[in-house]
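Hi Y.,

Following your request, here is the sequence exactly as I used it, all 325 residues.
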Amino acid sequence: MENLISVIIPVYNRTNYLPECMDSLFAQSYRNLQIILVDDGSTDGSVELCRRYAREDERIHFIAADHGGVSAARNLALEAAKGEYVLFVDSDDVIHPLLVEALLRGLVESGAGMASTRCLGIPNDKWGDVTSLIQNSPGPAETRHRTHPEVLDDFFNGCSPFGVVGGVMMRRDLIGDTRFNTDLFIGEDFYFVYQNLIKGTDAVYLRQRWYYYRDHAQNSGGITSYDAFWTRFYRRKLVWQNEERLGRIQYANIQKRNGLSIYLRAVTNHSLNKADGKKARATIKAHRKEIFPALRIQGKIRYFIAVYLPFLQRALKKIRKLFKK
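Below is the corresponding structure, written out as C-alpha coordinates. Let me know if you'd prefer a different format.
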Protein backbone atom coordinates (compact mmCIF):
# COMPACT_ATOMS: atom_id res chain seq x y z
CA MET A 1 0.00 0.00 0.00
CA GLU A 2 1.47 3.30 -1.12
CA ASN A 3 -1.56 5.51 -0.52
CA LEU A 4 -0.90 8.91 1.02
CA ILE A 5 -2.81 9.44 4.28
CA SER A 6 -3.56 13.00 5.42
CA VAL A 7 -3.73 13.15 9.22
CA ILE A 8 -5.68 16.18 10.46
CA ILE A 9 -4.81 17.52 13.92
CA PRO A 10 -6.39 20.76 15.22
CA VAL A 11 -4.33 22.39 17.97
CA TYR A 12 -5.43 24.89 20.60
CA ASN A 13 -3.23 25.50 23.66
CA ARG A 14 -1.89 21.96 23.74
CA THR A 15 1.82 22.31 24.51
CA ASN A 16 1.44 19.84 27.39
CA TYR A 17 -0.23 17.16 25.28
CA LEU A 18 0.86 17.58 21.66
CA PRO A 19 4.30 15.91 22.01
CA GLU A 20 2.73 12.58 23.03
CA CYS A 21 0.24 12.82 20.19
CA MET A 22 3.01 13.48 17.67
CA ASP A 23 5.20 10.71 19.08
CA SER A 24 2.35 8.26 18.44
CA LEU A 25 2.23 9.41 14.81
CA PHE A 26 5.99 9.16 14.36
CA ALA A 27 5.74 5.58 15.70
CA GLN A 28 3.25 4.47 13.03
CA SER A 29 4.15 1.36 11.06
CA TYR A 30 2.69 3.07 7.99
CA ARG A 31 4.95 5.96 7.02
CA ASN A 32 3.39 7.61 3.96
CA LEU A 33 1.69 10.41 5.88
CA GLN A 34 0.88 14.07 5.41
CA ILE A 35 0.47 15.37 8.97
CA ILE A 36 -1.51 18.61 8.98
CA LEU A 37 -1.25 20.69 12.15
CA VAL A 38 -3.67 23.61 12.33
CA ASP A 39 -3.11 25.98 15.22
CA ASP A 40 -6.40 27.63 16.19
CA GLY A 41 -5.01 30.84 17.66
CA SER A 42 -3.11 29.32 20.60
CA THR A 43 -1.58 31.58 23.25
CA ASP A 44 0.57 29.04 25.10
CA GLY A 45 3.47 28.38 22.75
CA SER A 46 1.75 25.74 20.61
CA VAL A 47 2.56 27.71 17.46
CA GLU A 48 6.29 27.53 18.11
CA LEU A 49 6.02 23.82 18.88
CA CYS A 50 4.16 23.16 15.62
CA ARG A 51 6.70 25.16 13.63
CA ARG A 52 9.52 23.11 15.14
CA TYR A 53 7.82 19.87 14.15
CA ALA A 54 7.36 21.18 10.61
CA ARG A 55 11.04 22.06 10.36
CA GLU A 56 12.14 18.64 11.59
CA ASP A 57 9.84 16.42 9.50
CA GLU A 58 8.99 17.17 5.88
CA ARG A 59 5.75 15.20 6.17
CA ILE A 60 4.30 17.90 8.44
CA HIS A 61 2.27 20.75 6.99
CA PHE A 62 1.60 23.58 9.44
CA ILE A 63 -1.21 26.15 9.22
CA ALA A 64 -1.47 29.06 11.68
CA ALA A 65 -4.98 30.48 11.98
CA ASP A 66 -6.94 32.94 14.08
CA HIS A 67 -9.11 31.39 16.78
CA GLY A 68 -12.21 30.15 14.99
CA GLY A 69 -12.97 26.88 16.75
CA VAL A 70 -12.18 23.25 16.06
CA SER A 71 -14.58 23.01 13.11
CA ALA A 72 -12.96 25.91 11.29
CA ALA A 73 -9.51 24.46 12.01
CA ARG A 74 -10.43 21.05 10.60
CA ASN A 75 -11.97 22.71 7.54
CA LEU A 76 -8.69 24.51 6.82
CA ALA A 77 -6.89 21.18 7.07
CA LEU A 78 -9.35 19.52 4.67
CA GLU A 79 -8.55 22.21 2.10
CA ALA A 80 -4.85 21.40 2.46
CA ALA A 81 -5.24 17.60 2.46
CA LYS A 82 -3.49 15.83 -0.43
CA GLY A 83 -3.96 12.21 0.63
CA GLU A 84 -6.33 9.69 -0.89
CA TYR A 85 -7.52 9.08 2.66
CA VAL A 86 -7.99 11.38 5.67
CA LEU A 87 -7.54 10.40 9.33
CA PHE A 88 -8.74 12.61 12.19
CA VAL A 89 -6.77 12.79 15.44
CA ASP A 90 -7.14 15.24 18.34
CA SER A 91 -3.99 16.86 19.67
CA ASP A 92 -4.43 15.62 23.26
CA ASP A 93 -4.95 11.96 22.27
CA VAL A 94 -2.64 9.20 21.04
CA ILE A 95 -3.05 6.28 18.64
CA HIS A 96 -1.70 2.74 18.51
CA PRO A 97 1.38 2.25 16.27
CA LEU A 98 -0.59 -0.06 13.96
CA LEU A 99 -3.75 2.05 13.68
CA VAL A 100 -3.09 3.82 10.36
CA GLU A 101 -1.97 0.62 8.66
CA ALA A 102 -4.97 -1.32 10.02
CA LEU A 103 -7.60 1.21 8.96
CA LEU A 104 -6.07 1.69 5.52
CA ARG A 105 -5.85 -2.04 4.88
CA GLY A 106 -9.48 -2.45 5.90
CA LEU A 107 -10.59 0.26 3.50
CA VAL A 108 -8.50 -0.94 0.58
CA GLU A 109 -9.52 -4.58 0.92
CA SER A 110 -13.24 -3.87 1.43
CA GLY A 111 -13.72 -0.90 -0.87
CA ALA A 112 -15.57 0.91 1.94
CA GLY A 113 -15.38 4.67 2.36
CA MET A 114 -15.06 4.92 6.15
CA ALA A 115 -13.23 3.02 8.89
CA SER A 116 -12.69 3.56 12.58
CA THR A 117 -11.64 2.12 15.89
CA ARG A 118 -13.53 2.72 19.11
CA CYS A 119 -12.04 5.28 21.47
CA LEU A 120 -10.71 4.15 24.82
CA GLY A 121 -11.26 6.98 27.30
CA ILE A 122 -8.59 7.32 29.96
CA PRO A 123 -8.74 9.81 32.87
CA ASN A 124 -5.90 12.28 32.87
CA ASP A 125 -4.61 11.02 36.23
CA LYS A 126 -4.29 7.49 34.79
CA TRP A 127 -2.78 8.53 31.48
CA GLY A 128 0.45 6.72 32.33
CA ASP A 129 -1.39 3.45 31.68
CA VAL A 130 -1.43 4.14 27.92
CA THR A 131 2.03 2.70 27.33
CA SER A 132 1.15 -0.62 28.91
CA LEU A 133 -2.20 -0.72 27.09
CA ILE A 134 -0.40 -0.37 23.77
CA GLN A 135 2.21 -2.97 24.67
CA ASN A 136 -0.54 -5.42 25.66
CA SER A 137 -2.34 -4.98 22.34
CA PRO A 138 0.31 -5.92 19.77
CA GLY A 139 -1.99 -7.00 16.91
CA PRO A 140 -2.68 -8.26 14.35
CA ALA A 141 -5.60 -5.98 13.60
CA GLU A 142 -9.06 -7.52 13.29
CA THR A 143 -11.61 -5.70 11.13
CA ARG A 144 -15.26 -6.21 10.32
CA HIS A 145 -16.93 -5.01 7.11
CA ARG A 146 -20.45 -3.58 7.41
CA THR A 147 -22.77 -2.72 4.53
CA HIS A 148 -24.31 0.74 4.35
CA PRO A 149 -27.72 -0.30 5.78
CA GLU A 150 -25.97 -2.16 8.59
CA VAL A 151 -23.65 0.68 9.53
CA LEU A 152 -26.48 3.21 9.33
CA ASP A 153 -28.52 1.17 11.80
CA ASP A 154 -25.45 0.71 14.02
CA PHE A 155 -24.78 4.44 13.92
CA PHE A 156 -28.22 5.52 15.12
CA ASN A 157 -28.41 2.82 17.76
CA GLY A 158 -24.99 3.65 19.25
CA CYS A 159 -23.37 0.41 18.07
CA SER A 160 -20.76 1.84 15.70
CA PRO A 161 -17.39 3.51 16.40
CA PHE A 162 -18.48 6.64 14.52
CA GLY A 163 -19.94 8.69 17.39
CA VAL A 164 -16.87 10.95 17.30
CA VAL A 165 -14.39 11.77 14.55
CA GLY A 166 -11.21 10.86 16.46
CA GLY A 167 -9.79 7.68 14.96
CA VAL A 168 -11.99 7.87 11.85
CA MET A 169 -10.43 7.41 8.42
CA MET A 170 -12.34 8.37 5.26
CA ARG A 171 -11.72 8.38 1.56
CA ARG A 172 -11.09 11.98 0.55
CA ASP A 173 -13.25 11.59 -2.55
CA LEU A 174 -16.13 10.54 -0.28
CA ILE A 175 -15.74 13.73 1.77
CA GLY A 176 -15.68 15.89 -1.35
CA ASP A 177 -16.89 19.39 -0.51
CA THR A 178 -18.49 18.39 2.82
CA ARG A 179 -17.12 20.42 5.72
CA PHE A 180 -17.61 20.69 9.48
CA ASN A 181 -20.54 22.85 10.59
CA THR A 182 -19.02 25.90 12.30
CA ASP A 183 -22.28 26.65 14.10
CA LEU A 184 -21.62 23.60 16.28
CA PHE A 185 -18.86 23.47 18.90
CA ILE A 186 -20.05 20.24 20.55
CA GLY A 187 -21.19 17.32 18.41
CA GLU A 188 -19.73 18.82 15.26
CA ASP A 189 -17.76 15.60 14.68
CA PHE A 190 -20.87 13.38 14.94
CA TYR A 191 -22.65 15.59 12.42
CA PHE A 192 -19.72 15.58 10.00
CA VAL A 193 -19.52 11.77 10.15
CA TYR A 194 -23.28 11.62 9.61
CA GLN A 195 -23.10 13.88 6.56
CA ASN A 196 -20.60 11.53 4.95
CA LEU A 197 -22.19 8.30 6.11
CA ILE A 198 -25.54 9.05 4.46
CA LYS A 199 -23.83 9.28 1.08
CA GLY A 200 -24.26 5.49 0.91
CA THR A 201 -20.87 4.17 1.92
CA ASP A 202 -20.03 0.85 3.54
CA ALA A 203 -17.74 0.93 6.57
CA VAL A 204 -15.06 -1.03 8.38
CA TYR A 205 -14.87 -1.43 12.16
CA LEU A 206 -11.60 -2.21 13.88
CA ARG A 207 -12.29 -4.64 16.74
CA GLN A 208 -9.39 -3.36 18.84
CA ARG A 209 -9.72 -0.06 20.70
CA TRP A 210 -6.60 1.61 19.35
CA TYR A 211 -7.49 5.27 19.80
CA TYR A 212 -6.67 6.55 23.30
CA TYR A 213 -8.80 9.49 24.35
CA ARG A 214 -7.56 11.71 27.17
CA ASP A 215 -10.42 12.57 29.52
CA HIS A 216 -9.62 15.89 31.19
CA ALA A 217 -11.30 19.10 32.31
CA GLN A 218 -10.65 20.94 29.04
CA ASN A 219 -12.72 18.51 26.95
CA SER A 220 -15.81 20.10 25.41
CA GLY A 221 -18.02 17.43 26.99
CA GLY A 222 -17.64 19.18 30.33
CA ILE A 223 -19.10 22.52 29.16
CA THR A 224 -22.47 23.14 30.83
CA SER A 225 -23.76 26.53 29.62
CA TYR A 226 -27.00 27.08 27.71
CA ASP A 227 -24.94 27.51 24.53
CA ALA A 228 -23.47 24.05 25.15
CA PHE A 229 -26.96 22.63 25.71
CA TRP A 230 -28.18 24.27 22.52
CA THR A 231 -25.37 22.98 20.31
CA ARG A 232 -25.92 19.45 21.65
CA PHE A 233 -29.65 19.77 20.98
CA TYR A 234 -29.28 21.55 17.63
CA ARG A 235 -26.98 18.82 16.29
CA ARG A 236 -29.75 16.31 16.92
CA LYS A 237 -32.33 18.62 15.37
CA LEU A 238 -30.29 18.92 12.19
CA VAL A 239 -30.09 15.14 11.94
CA TRP A 240 -33.75 14.43 12.67
CA GLN A 241 -34.88 17.04 10.14
CA ASN A 242 -32.72 15.48 7.46
CA GLU A 243 -33.81 11.95 8.34
CA GLU A 244 -37.44 13.06 7.99
CA ARG A 245 -36.65 14.44 4.54
CA LEU A 246 -35.12 11.07 3.66
CA GLY A 247 -38.18 9.25 4.93
CA ARG A 248 -36.36 7.39 7.72
CA ILE A 249 -38.75 8.26 10.51
CA GLN A 250 -37.38 5.61 12.87
CA TYR A 251 -33.95 7.29 12.89
CA ALA A 252 -35.49 10.77 13.16
CA ASN A 253 -37.40 9.62 16.24
CA ILE A 254 -34.24 8.30 17.87
CA GLN A 255 -32.67 11.73 17.51
CA LYS A 256 -35.76 13.43 18.92
CA ARG A 257 -35.68 11.18 21.97
CA ASN A 258 -31.97 11.95 22.31
CA GLY A 259 -32.80 15.64 22.20
CA LEU A 260 -35.07 15.24 25.22
CA SER A 261 -32.38 13.16 26.97
CA ILE A 262 -29.94 16.06 26.62
CA TYR A 263 -32.38 18.29 28.49
CA LEU A 264 -33.18 15.68 31.14
CA ARG A 265 -29.49 15.09 31.80
CA ALA A 266 -28.85 18.81 32.20
CA VAL A 267 -31.69 19.42 34.66
CA THR A 268 -31.16 16.19 36.59
CA ASN A 269 -27.47 16.93 37.09
CA HIS A 270 -28.15 20.63 37.80
CA SER A 271 -25.50 21.48 35.21
CA LEU A 272 -27.37 24.65 34.16
CA ASN A 273 -27.80 27.73 36.30
CA LYS A 274 -31.32 29.07 36.88
CA ALA A 275 -31.36 31.45 33.91
CA ASP A 276 -29.89 28.89 31.51
CA GLY A 277 -32.27 26.26 32.85
CA LYS A 278 -35.24 28.48 31.96
CA LYS A 279 -33.88 29.00 28.45
CA ALA A 280 -33.36 25.26 27.98
CA ARG A 281 -36.89 24.54 29.21
CA ALA A 282 -38.25 27.12 26.77
CA THR A 283 -36.32 25.41 23.97
CA ILE A 284 -37.82 22.01 24.77
CA LYS A 285 -41.30 23.53 25.01
CA ALA A 286 -40.84 25.19 21.63
CA HIS A 287 -40.07 21.78 20.08
CA ARG A 288 -42.89 19.90 21.81
CA LYS A 289 -44.84 19.22 18.60
CA GLU A 290 -41.74 17.62 17.06
CA ILE A 291 -40.46 15.68 20.06
CA PHE A 292 -43.58 14.51 21.91
CA PRO A 293 -45.00 12.18 19.20
CA ALA A 294 -41.63 10.36 19.03
CA LEU A 295 -41.67 9.49 22.74
CA ARG A 296 -42.80 6.26 24.29
CA ILE A 297 -45.19 6.32 27.28
CA GLN A 298 -42.43 6.61 29.87
CA GLY A 299 -40.76 9.33 27.83
CA LYS A 300 -43.99 11.31 27.62
CA ILE A 301 -44.35 11.17 31.41
CA ARG A 302 -40.76 12.27 31.92
CA TYR A 303 -41.28 15.10 29.43
CA PHE A 304 -44.29 16.51 31.28
CA ILE A 305 -42.66 16.25 34.69
CA ALA A 306 -39.34 17.78 33.60
CA VAL A 307 -40.82 20.57 31.49
CA TYR A 308 -44.04 21.49 33.26
CA LEU A 309 -43.51 20.19 36.81
CA PRO A 310 -39.80 20.68 37.52
CA PHE A 311 -40.44 20.98 41.26
CA LEU A 312 -41.88 17.45 41.19
CA GLN A 313 -38.81 16.17 39.38
CA ARG A 314 -36.57 17.64 42.08
CA ALA A 315 -38.73 16.01 44.78
CA LEU A 316 -38.57 12.62 43.03
CA LYS A 317 -34.80 12.92 42.81
CA LYS A 318 -34.56 13.51 46.57
CA ILE A 319 -36.79 10.51 47.21
CA ARG A 320 -34.61 8.28 45.02
CA LYS A 321 -31.54 9.40 46.94
CA LEU A 322 -33.21 8.49 50.24
CA PHE A 323 -34.03 4.99 48.99
CA LYS A 324 -30.46 4.50 47.79
CA LYS A 325 -29.21 5.20 51.31
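The mean pLDDT is 93.

Thanks again,
Q.
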